């Protein structure tokens, strides 16, 4: 990235984690951390935030957790509170696969 390019993104780390879980319910914390560029501990904190807010569900599978999104939830900010996360996922997935 050159000096003149912005270092910010439109999605927060919470958004990135949510989108990765939406794309692959079998994804492990280590892979999420690697792909988002944050620590595993940060990912676990974000997962807990998303779980506490009702955006994901946890299922114990053996010694591991599997995470699943709650697709009918909407974005949190009042400016986008009419947007269901599943619609956003569908849009991003469609764009990525086109």
TrEMBL record:
Pfam families: TrmB (PF01978)
UniProt-listed SUPFAM superfamilies: Winged helix' DNA-binding domain
Boundaries of every Transcription regulator TrmB N-terminal domain copy: 17-72
Signal peptide: none
The protein's name: ArsR family transcriptional regulator
